[in-house]
Structure formats: structure tokens, C-alpha cells
Amino acid sequence: MRKHGTFIQRYLHWIVLSFFVAFVVFTFIEKQASVESYLMVAPIIFLMVLLQNVFTTYLRRKAITAYLKKNPAMIGNRAMYFKATELVVTIDGKDMSYKYSDFKNLESNKTHYFAFVNEQNAVIIPKRIFKNEEELKSSMKKIQDTIK
């Protein structure tokens, strides 16, 4: 299952509500509703799901942006250094060092690497911090070589 559930799990309430509305409308307004009338619910469901998705995404981004404008210290100055035997992460002048042998797993997506210290905690390494592909590969190789 995905992080926030499957499509049906996330939008089941809209789907059920759409069928209920269609049932009520076609039962009380049209006394002899045909099966085709119930099929008209599909576009309603699609629009409701689309609107909810767009609206909640917009509200979430708006809330996060407003919060960060009020609290700029939440995103402090950050730096990351790959040394011979450790990765040093500096946040607002405070250093945290991780030996390469401390990492248990290394995963990636299009924009980031995730160096896991345990099952739930990871150091997030943005790919954009590297000057070129060669530097990226050599830095990740240091971590990958120590993972058992």
C-alpha cells in the first residue's frame, strides 16, 4: 500500500457520496430512472475527486508557505560535507557527523538520495548539491561500499 493509501481508500467517501446523491436524485425526482441515468454519476465522481485533490494540495501548499514566512528559522542554513570516512551535515552552525559505516541502506529518487541510519531515520541528500555526475557517483559510492 502506498504511503497515504490507495486511490479508493483516499476517495471512497466521495465515491459513496456521489452514488448516494445519484440514488436520491433519481429516486425522488425521476420516478422511473434508467440504468443509464446512474452511469451519469461517473463524471460527477471524477470531478469531485479532482476538485478535492486540487483543493487540498493548494491549501496544504498555502499553509506551509505561510508557516515558513512566519517562521523563517525553520529552514536554517545547511551544508553537507563528504569526508574520507564520514558525512558531516551542518545546520545553523551545528555539526552532525555520520560515519559511512553507520548507514544501513541507500535509496534514491529523481532528486534525492536517502541514506538510512535505521529503518525510520535517514539523511536526505539532494542531488543538486553536487557539481557534476562524477562527484555524485563518487560520494554515493563511499556510502554504498560500507553498506552490508
Topology of helices and strands:
Elements lengths: L6 H22 L6 H5 L1 H30 L7 E5 L3 E6 L2 E6 L5 E4 L3 E5 L5 E5 L6 H14 L2
Antiparallel strand pairs: 1-2, 2-3, 4-5, 5-6
Helix pairs in contact: 1-3
What does this structure look like?
This protein is of the alpha+beta class and 148 residues long. Helix content is 48%, strand content 21%. It is built from four helices and six strands. It has helices at 7-28, 35-39, 41-70, 133-146, and strands at 78-82, 86-91, 94-99, 105-108, 112-116, 122-126. The strands form two sheets. The chain has a three-stranded antiparallel β-sheet with strand order 1-2-3, with no helix packed on it. A hairpin with a 5-residue loop joins strand 5 and strand 6 (122-126). The mean pLDDT is 80.
SS-based class: alpha+beta
What is the global morphology? elongated
Can you count the helices?
Answer: 4
| Strand arrangement across the biggest beta sheet | 1-2-3
Runs with pLDDT <50, length 5+? none
Overall helicity: 40-55%
How much strand? 15-25%
Calculate Rg over CA atoms.
25 Å
Strands, total number = 6
Profile the largest sheet.
3 strands, antiparallel
**In angstroms, what separates the terminal alpha carbons?**
27 Å
| Overall pLDDT level | 80
Order of helices and strands: HHHEEEEEEH
